[in-house]
Design brief:
- The complex is a heterodimer.
- By secondary structure, chain A is mostly helical.
- Chain A is about 75% helix and about 0% strand.
- Chain A has one domain.
- Chain A contains eleven helices and one strand; from the N terminus they run ααβααααααααα.
- Chain A is globular.
- Chain B is mainly alpha-helical.
- Chain B starts with a helix and ends with a helix.
- Classes of the chains: A mainly alpha, B mainly alpha.
- Chains A and B meet through β1, α3, α4, α5 and α9 of A and α15, α16, β5, α19 and β6 of B.
């Protein structure tokens, strides 16, 4: 039973990290952006304060649609479920399908909920935002599919545990990491890829009609989604090279490494966000199509054994 | 089985009730009984094993493979027939209940026969019956555009299905040597010792026939218009069941009889991958709900062929790869069942919208979510299922196809799998549009619309409920489906292959607990109600304050425009060929119509022909004689003696001349 207690401990740590850290990460990003613009910036807790305030406010109701009410909660549940599917140390809190495709689809459900939420209101701006969100998914998904192909071929399985255990370093894997970082960055909807929610153009896209608590739930879901994608990348980046993680001590080390890397990646993301302007949707489509063909070349390399 | 066929026959006969509504309702009801009997048969075969029987002297052999297809047919038939009881009312003005009754019941019965007969002869015959009855159903509405579509469908089927099938029948005859002994077992024995080129000819002919009927890529041009033209409940059966019958042909005839090689499997898989890409990307830019669904049928058939192709390519290799191949084939078959369920459901939803609003143009629809709550929810379930969102059934089968493709260690198959993943996103995109444009928002134009009648809702919900049920408990159907003995792991709560597992029950419980938990602890509080924010515009048509169905992905479509141009080119070739064949038919047909008497009349469509008076062949043959007699009658009374003498002299001279010549 000792092992189970360890497992429980890691799961709890994971759940705490996954629930509490994401708004802090946003706080870090805001601070970094402010510093780049020679401002002092808000405290790290600021995103938490914002969420707290939103949760305390009632929502304005533009439609009686039940989908409108339920979409934020489904988005949040999907984001949390996806986060629970990732390894914290070497422990997966809830293993309902520890493989690449399931993970990707569960995280995609956040976008699905967002899109249907936007479409449930009679508002051209939120429809436009939903359609844009979909177009981004449409261009990112083939790219991610190719990269999964490389990982699956390299490790011989789609199971993430097998990939962690069997991945071997080849040039194609290194290139895959680069493209995967790009793909996940786009998928997270950071600037310059925040086209769907573009505040200044389509007044928040699918979120246009949301306010108060429901908006807070959606924001929380989006923060968790971003955290999850980053944690996924960091896990794939670190865990295969740490060797077998047998003891709780090594697992704690792995978890610490994951945590530190996640936190330290965020300033980089913030710097990218602060120094870029939003792209147009057709530019994103073009970039991602190119990345897709690059991915196919990488896949061919992987099959040739490089 | 005999009960099912009996019910279909009674259903057909019930069409002779005079009253349109009564005949349509009664025959749809009998079709429902027949479909339920088919399901009973499925259960019977599943528990007692394969069954051989002789039905009205037709030899039947219900194997485990047939059983899968009977299950598909039973489920779709049940839901669609139940739905048709109310739905067919909208065609009342055609007033031809008996046509529908006979054709619909024949259609279902012929499909049941195709997947169960054990004789090449009866297979071809039932196949032709299926094509003919579906053709009649397609032009049932008798609108000009629909008739055109149905003619195109029939002629395409004629050239690409009937001819190859009859040639294949001839090949089989030459192998076995007797029409009475053309059972599949005998053909298999004969083929075993046949030379390789005979096998290639036989398999190739069958493959062309099945590809054409399934709408696999070079032959996809007939699908969209045909499914649009048919009454929606029939489209549901066509997309749900008729397409799957071709898959039965592929498995039972091509694979099991002729055998498979790695190359054939790769070819099938690549055809599937191409088809799923082309079909779905065409669907993406479609704005007519039924045409959109039809293009998705093409696309989803591509998924199924990809799965079966993986099986056909890898099973001959043996070892660990054979296990992955079996997984692929199983996933393909599973997807066939799932596709039948969600595509049937989607067609029924589109039909429900048509029933209440009279249109399936996405451009005109909108805001039905509140008026037609249950239809909207069914459409949402089925949309998520076809887009492969967990925990619906489409996800499970697609996911197994991806697993098989990715782990196949084969570049082409992995490429097929990644195209499948990509197209899954395109499917999602297209169904976000499908759902959003019809049910999203609120429109004043459709304020008065009500929910559809109970039987129609029930028909939709049988299928929509199954998408969730099978998605959460795939174990309910994997027993029937696993005819390839794929080493899948399926317990009560998880399904998968090797270490790649997914537990839909755990997933849905997790999501539900978190969502409901958050909902209960942070209940949404609503302050005031407000109309959607429109930036303070004063004169705004609120119904049009949205994104039109064309505008959804316009930027994306522009960027992949070269793909469309390239595929259009292929499309044009196929359609061009069929157009010239249709022209040829029209040219022949024009000689049976009075129009030829008027010079310079162009005959291009059936409508041009309809304007003329129809002539019958026997009438035509006797026409010169009748014309002569008429002239004689006109001329004789006014004849003068001199003329008469001259005519008589000519006749006598002619007679003498003939006699001398002899």
């Amino acid at each position: 039973m000792a092992l189970d207690i360890v497992k429980l401990g890691f799961s709890l740590a994971g759940i705490l990290i996954m629930l509490l850290l994401p708004p802090y990460l946003d706080g870090i990003a805001r601070r970094v952006k402010a510093r780049l613009q020679y401002r002092r910036g808000p405290p790290l807790m600021q995103t938490w304060y914002d969420l707290q305030k939103l949760f305390a406010l009632p929502s304005v109701r533009p439609t009686k649609s039940a989908l409108f009410t339920w979409a934020p909660y489904i988005a949040l549940a999907s984001a949390i479920s996806a986060a629970l599917l990732l390894p914290y140390g070497n422990v997966v809190p809830v293993d309902f399908g520890f493989n690449l495709v399931v993970f990707f689809y569960v995280i995609l459900m956040v976008s699905v909920a967002l899109m249907f939420a936007g479409l449930s209101v009679q508002n051209a701006f939120s429809h436009l935002g939903s359609a844009r969100e979909m177009q981004i998914v449409l261009t990112v998904e083939p790219l991610i599919a190719v990269l999964y192909g490389v990982l699956a071929y390299n490790a011989g399985s789609l199971n993430i545990a097998d990939i962690i255990a069997n991945l071997h370093a080849t040039p194609s894997v290194i290139l895959t990491y680069i493209l995967l970082a790009y793909a996940l960055y786009v998928e997270s909807g950071f600037v310059p890829f925040d086209i769907a929610e573009a505040e200044q153009e389509v007044i928040g896209g699918p979120l246009t009609e949301y306010s108060g608590r429901l908006l807070g739930v959606f924001y929380y879901a989006i923060h968790i989604k971003r955290f999850t994608l980053l944690w996924f990348f960091v896990s794939l980046l670190t865990l295969p090279w740490l060797g077998p993680i047998g003891t709780p001590g090594r697992a704690a080390l792995a978890l610490a490494l994951q945590f530190i890397l996640t936190v330290s990646f965020y300033p980089v993301i913030a710097a990218l966000e602060a120094t870029n302007a939003r792209l147009r949707i057709d530019q994103v489509v073009k970039m991602n199509t190119r990345a897709f063909f690059a991915g196919i070349i990488i896949l061919a390399m992987a099959f040739m054994g490089w | 089985m005999e009960y099912a066929l009996g019910a279909f026959i009674i259903g057909g006969l019930l069409g002779f009730i005079k009253d349109y509504k009564a005949s349509v309702k009664a025959s749809s009801f009998m079709a429902l009984i027949g479909s339920l009997a088919l399901l009973g048969e499925v259960y019977n075969v599943y528990t007692n094993g394969p069954e051989r029987l002789n039905l009205y002297r037709i030899p039947l052999h219900i194997t485990a493979t047939s059983n899968v297809f009977l299950l598909i047919l039973g489920i779709v038939g049940t839901a669609a027939s139940l739905y048709a009881i109310s739905y067919m009312d909208i065609f009342e003005r055609t007033g031809k209940g008996w046509v529908y009754a006979i054709a619909y019941n024949t259609f279902l019965a012929s499909m049941a026969l195709v997947v169960t007969v054990n004789s090449m002869e009866y297979f071809v015959m039932s196949w032709e019956l299926m094509t003919l009855s579906s053709f009649i159903l397609v032009f049932f509405s008798e609108k000009a555009r629909d008739v055109g579509a149905s003619v195109k469908y029939y002629i395409t089927m004629h050239f690409l299905d009937t001819i190859p099938l009859f040639l294949a029948l001839g090949t089989a005859y030459s192998l076995v040597g007797s029409f009475e002994k053309l059972s599949f077992d005998n053909i298999a024995t004969a083929l075993a010792s046949a030379p390789a080129h005979t096998k290639i000819v036989f398999g190739g002919l069958l493959l062309i026939a099945f590809m054409a009927k399934a709408g696999i890529v070079p032959f996809q041009f007939w699908v969209a218009e045909t499914y649009r033209a048919a009454p929606t409940s029939v489209s549901a059966v066509m997309a749900g069941a008729m397409e799957k019958v071709t898959l039965y042909g592929l498995i039972a005839l091509v694979w099991k009889l002729v055998g498979t090689t790695y190359l054939l499997g790769i070819a099938i898989a690549l055809l599937g991958a191409t088809t799923l890409t082309v079909g779905t990307l065409y669907a993406l830019r479609e704005t007519n709900a039924k045409r959109l669904l039809a293009y998705h049928s093409i696309g989803q058939m591509g998924y199924i062929w990809l799965g079966i192709g993986i099986g056909m390519a890898l099973i001959p290799k043996g070892g660990a790869l054979a296990a992955i191949g079996a997984l692929g084939a199983f996933a393909g078959l599973f997807h066939a069942l799932n596709h039948a369920i969600f595509k049937g459901s989607l067609f029924l939803s589109a039909g429900a919208v048509e029933y209440r609003t009279g249109t399936v143009e996405l451009e005109e629809l909108g805001g039905l979510g509140r008026q037609m709550k249950w239809t909207a929810l069914a459409a949402l379930f089925a949309s998520l299922a076809i887009a492969g969102v967990p925990p619906f059934n489409g996800f499970i089968s697609k996911w197994l196809i991806y697993v098989a493709g990715y782990q196949s260690k084969d570049f082409l198959l992995a490429f097929g799998a990644l195209l499948a993943v990509f197209i899954s996103a395109a499917t999602l995109a297209s169904f976000v549009k499908f759902y959003g444009t019809q049910f999203g928002g609120e429109m004043k134009r459709y304020k008065e619309v009500r929910e559809v009648p109970g039987t129609m809702l029930l028909g939709q919900w049988i299928l929509a409920g199954l998408t969730l049920l099978i998605g959460v408990f795939p174990g309910t159907v994997t027993g029937i489906l696993n005819v390839f003995n794929a080493p899948i792991k399926d317990g009560v709560y998880r399904i998968g292959f090797g270490s790649v597992l997914f537990s839909p029950v755990l997933f849905i419980v997790l999501v539900a607990v978190i969502a409901v938990g958050f909902y209960l602890s942070f209940r949404p509080e609503y302050g005031k109600e407000a109309t959607p924010w429109d930036c303070g515009t004063t004169a705004l048509n609120e119904d049009e304050y949205r994104v039109s169905s064309e505008g959804y992905y316009i930027k994306y479509e522009e960027k992949i425009g070269s793909f469309y141009r390239f595929s259009d080119w292929f499309y044009m070739i196929g359609e061009g060929i069929i157009r010239y064949i249709v022209r040829g038919y029209m040219w022949i047909a024009s000689y049976f119509v009075k129009i030829v008497d008027t010079p310079y009349t162009r005959i291009e469509t059936l409508d041009d022909l309809r304007r003329g008076r129809v002539l019958n062949a026997d009438e035509e043959a006797l026409k010169p004689l009748i014309r002569f007699l008429r002239i004689a009658c006109d001329v004789l009374p006014g004849i003068r003696l001199g003329t008469f003498v001259v005519i008589a002299l000519i006749v006598v001279g002619a007679v003498i001349g003939i006699l001398m010549a002899l």
